[in-house]
Amino acid sequence: xxxxxxxxxxxxxLIDIAELLRYKELLYxxxxxxxxxxxxxxxxxxxxxxxxxxxxxxxFTFFFGNLAKISSGDLPYSLFSLCGLVFWTFFxxxxxxxxxxxxxxxxxxxxxxxxxxxxxxxxxTTGFVDFIINVFLLxxxxxxxxxxxxxxxxxxxxxxxxxxxITAFGLGLFLSSFNVKYRDxxxxxxxxxxxxxxxxxxxxxxxxxxxxxxxxxxxxxMTTVVELTRLVFDPKYPIYPNVIAISIFSALLLxxxxxxxxxxxxxxFADIV
Length: 273
Description:
Blueprint: H1 17-22, H2 24-39, H3 47-67, H4 77-99, H5 101-104, H6 106-111, H7 118-144, H8 153-181, H9 185-198, H10 211-217, H11 221-231, H12 241-265, H13 269-272
Helix pairs in contact: 2-7, 3-4, 4-7, 4-8, 4-9, 4-11, 7-8, 8-11, 8-12, 11-12
């Protein structure tokens, strides 16, 4: 008979890669389950993934592009805003589902042991599936407007995906842990995401912001993601190296803090969820 000894994990060992590899099939199961649940009994199915950024782009273009006359450089305002919304939808959707992952999987957490980190991680991978669909939408729309993606996109898109995933995962780990004890998170988070939308340069370019405020906005990693995406279609689009550096550092800091807080509180999930 094999003897299994379960010991408390060190708070300072932020992630156990070997354990995650052993449970990789469970991650696939969680991801596939979430995808099926999301579109089960929906009238339009996967079309909802495309519907959200398209309608938001239309609204932003009408109010901010046509009425407010916000500059979009050499890009049509619709393409300008869609560049940001494709990544923003990935971020906001992943963060929302990750923060609620412990509560929605309460029954599983109480019954069997598995690395709880798989739950918020599956939310990111589920959001990535939707993101791929929206990227094809973005590329198709750009080609229709006559804008050919630059080769630099082969570097920018992977960097944008990594930064977005790291940011959503780090924040998702913290909020999912916090949500176990304080259920206010599910009410506060939508408001937080809405505020964050307006302090991310989605409806306006970073170029119109003062240098001091650019540095502050760079603490939000999505600022760099959104701005770099526009460079794929407009090679003259202004980019600020200091903003990129700050955003990357901020994303890594969020990830480390999220992992640390999640590891610190994970042992109590089954008792208080």
